[in-house]
Amino acid sequence: MSDTHDVIVIGAGPAGEVAAQRAREGGLSVAVVESRLVGGECSYFACIPTKAVLRPIHAVRAAQRLQGVTGATLDVAGVLARRESWVSSRDDAGQADWLAGADIELVRGRARLSGEREVTVDDRVLTARQAVVVATGTRASIPDIPGLRDAGPWTNVEATSTDTVPPRLVVLGGGVVACELAQIFGALGSQVIMVVRGDRVLGRLDDIASDAVLAALRADGIDVRLGATATAVDRDGDTVTVTMDGGERVTGDEVLCALGRTPNSDDLGLAEQGVDLGDPPDWLYAVGDVSGRVALTHMGKYQARACGDLVVARAAGEVDPADLERYGRFSDAAIDTATPQVIFTDPEVAAVGPTFAEAKESGRNVRAVEVPLPAAAGAALQADGYTGTARLLVDVDTEVIIGATFVGQDSAELVHAATIAIVGEVPLSRLWHAVPSFPTMSEVWLRLLEEYGL
Amino acid sequence: MSDTHDVIVIGAGPAGEVAAQRAREGGLSVAVVESRLVGGECSYFACIPTKAVLRPIHAVRAAQRLQGVTGATLDVAGVLARRESWVSSRDDAGQADWLAGADIELVRGRARLSGEREVTVDDRVLTARQAVVVATGTRASIPDIPGLRDAGPWTNVEATSTDTVPPRLVVLGGGVVACELAQIFGALGSQVIMVVRGDRVLGRLDDIASDAVLAALRADGIDVRLGATATAVDRDGDTVTVTMDGGERVTGDEVLCALGRTPNSDDLGLAEQGVDLGDPPDWLYAVGDVSGRVALTHMGKYQARACGDLVVARAAGEVDPADLERYGRFSDAAIDTATPQVIFTDPEVAAVGPTFAEAKESGRNVRAVEVPLPAAAGAALQADGYTGTARLLVDVDTEVIIGATFVGQDSAELVHAATIAIVGEVPLSRLWHAVPSFPTMSEVWLRLLEEYGL
Questions:
Q1: Is the pTM of this model over 0.90?
Q2: A149-259 maps to which CATH number?
């Protein structure tokens, strides 16, 4: 096979795959280099296995909350088997076949930039006529807490591939990964303790999400310690002890480190070649989590699509400047205006745009409009005793929505309507004519508009 | 209490309540006349009791479709108790209290128009300074099939208030009411036979919905006879026999008549007063199902809000003509452009706008874009072996969506995003920037846009 391609993509996670696919569909030849599993962290160690496990947990809880349903029980072995099926037992043959079917060359090995438009994989030198796209993702950070590395900490990788459920699990962190995995292991039977540095969980989300998820974790029996920093970790045989800044200690059989992510850009030869992903030369692109702009599979794919199409257009010398403008074909402006995120805890959190605090800080004239989700009959019908909240952020000057947060069981699918309203810049007066069906949960939109007072 | 009000609303169902509420909030005095239950057919005999029963049925099925969940079973007595709780055992005190709290006078009794702006309720004569709003809804039609009336047929009223589950139920009809109730009684333990005149069920919906729901009803063990017209009904003690046009007979313990609806406008004195709801004088309005425009609670409420606000503006002599234009404050244009409907069968159907057949007949240059719902990982994760379909209708000349149909488990909340895209007239090129979260079901939007080929 040729060692010269139009485009070389480093990293075969979702963003790398999409960039490669769009470039190939645009007629360019493409090689993708992957040192681990084709499909990336998301497919094997993050989104997919966690959701494969969370779905039966949610279904059992949903059933248990309804008069008229009896007997629903979680089968832990079945849950783990479901996960294994979804990750193909961490075999990437299916994903590699997809690349082959798309006529994209897969090069297995560790890639390093070795020159302009040149990538070396082991002893093979690949040359790109047009572009090199870096899509190497991130890995779990292991901070320099004394004893942590030696304690054999779990990261998302171990937590999503374990065959056994530890009787006691200490989770370091309070973000999305920490909350989802804490709730998973709690449901599977672990006694879980969370050591959270901040004064709330899900600190990057709106406070209505933090408050509800914290209460739910505690109602699940999870021991959540807020404002607690791990200062030392010691493993003694089967037991791990975590010491916190107040001197207090907690113990577990395993310790899960969910303290942020580190971009996989330190071993690519970037510095040696004098390039910087934050300000790359015109032949180099960064997409997905490694780009540092946003660490979400769907936004990585969005960014990668724009990137792949732009590489194709530049190769053809046909770049219409309008396509580079906000919401043009090659724009990834939605990263800044309308990044959605769903946290699959119970209650679910589905949010898009800035938090209320961020929106106020930006200097915009923003009003938060909030109603209980069960104000919509459709939510109240969904579960007996349903609780939840919907909050819209409205730019008062334009009467356009700029953000939304939905918190509650089965709220995940509510947010896309808000994303469309934000990106489409549909004013509230027009949204009155977008009538939600009775009795669906989406009817909370009607309550939100009423609450705004139009 | 005064017998003169600014506004008299006849009918205290959802549409009447909203018209009354908006008029009252606009500062007008309002009386509502109701001969049966405050809250209307929807609250006691339609949407609410059916959804209260369908939700546990759906939750059990969702649980049974997941590896990792065991034991979920329907408890029929619990299901019926849940229904009774949701309909307050058909006691409307709570809804009457709501009217009182909103400072709206409730007049119980049967209303007849007795003059211009004059309504007689039993022996009381009510006069409206501004407007009379007719919101009397519809009732189940009982066609002139020989023997049907004498057979004591069930309508939605009996089917949603029964304490017992008939061992054998014959359903006449194949529309929404027929399909939902057939599936309910099948799940509760009845042997159900459906006698459907047309060649498909849900004949007013897109064929992808009809096909999927028909297959599901049959997979449930329901005996669906298509192209079958009941020509005679005979009750002999506990058994009802329905004879079909081919001479074939089916028997049941009860027969449910779901053969359309009749507007409750025949006993209002309209003809005697020389008025026609289709072309009413300027002081008379019709909202909700009785208006004949669309028979859905949410669209009735939408229409009623515009009506109530218009009555207020006219009373003040302050009608801005722009507010009467399409998507203006007093417009109910979405009835024609973006009426959504959710059918809570399993699979659910969520649709908005015209069907593909209707759109083509209208002469528009329309393209249907279709993908399997499990093409989105979020749907495939929702249930093992998930099946379903999403279809968008795109006006090719403007590249704007004009319709959408989603068919599949838990698809109800997917349609509101489409409704906003239609009403907001958000072009497909902009919708690319409305990124759905991975892995939610909403990611089917990405697949639909890819399929369109942008």
A1: yes
A2: 3.50.50.60
